[in-house]
Amino acid sequence: MANKQSIKEELLILVASLYYMENLGQAKVAQLAGISQANVSRLLSEARKRGIVTINVKPFSPRNESLEQQLVDKFDLNHAIVINSSAHRNPVQQRQAIGYFAAPYVGDMIKLNHTVCLAAGRHIQALVENMRPVSTNSNVIFIQAMGHIRSDIHDDDAFEITRKMAKIWNGTSRSMQAPAITQDMDTYKAFTSHQQIKSIINQMDYADLAIIGVGISSDSVFLDREFISAKAMNHLFKQGVVGEICGHFFDDNGIEVDTAYKDRVIGITLDQLRDTPDVIAIASNANRAKSIRAGIRGGMIKSLVLDDNCAEELVTLDK
After folding, report:
1. Which end of the chain has fewer CB atoms at under 10 Å, N or C?
2. Strands 115-118 and 209-213, how do they pair?
3. What pLDDT, in 10s, does the model give residues 208-231?
4. Are 120 and 241 in contact, with CB atoms under 8 Å apart?
5. What is the chain's Cα-based Rg?
6. Residue ranges per domain, the chain?
């Protein structure tokens, strides 16, 4: 094959026409053009570089702006980002799609010198994986909003999410070496009296933004990691619990339920979330709608990142 400069335009047009216009496979293109099959892809690439082949795609938006406006109007939210779902995606792929398409918009909400609290969760992990790196010092402080769910740290733990975000944003991370929920009150007092943990919890009073997930009785990170048994979760449901945020279990009005875990949670409190100017809840699936509504009612959730299934269910509640 001659070098790129000597490749005749006629050959490039022939190869491109056979491949794109006639829909022939590369083997057939090679045969008709009198070249080796290995050179077909190289010639197609060269044709695109020279402008012989141009690709036009209709404008695409992954967001459902109508549902976004309905959510903002109905719940008086700061922001709503609704990502259209696809029947071809499984739940894992849907989380990845939400993370990919929502990351630029959430990134715009993080400002220089902000303090950002980060919870645990698979949706937040997907968001972080798709954040664009910041090259200059952002002076953003990222705080681990809740303790460890288990001793074996996963990518969707708050500790790991906080560490990665600080690296991506060229900021600073603040981590807590403590469990999310202690085994008893004595252990809770011992951890929260430690100066390092006390200092981090106090810093959450000054957060500009928090990014959280919303757990439900059938699908919670605590249940997934076997921190809480299915039987215990069932008991919480019977106590009136409809949702969970950062280890706090709350009722339909967003009021923390007096469970066995209530006074043993190490991390951001629901009152601190209420006082945070913006709190973004990220979720998918229609079964989380009631939990999200409760979080909004309780003043913990101020912005949403959802798929359209969850958004549609949320806007139709109480109709």
Report:
1. C
2. parallel
3. 999 999 987 666 666 666 666 677
4. no
5. 25
6. 4-49, 65-316
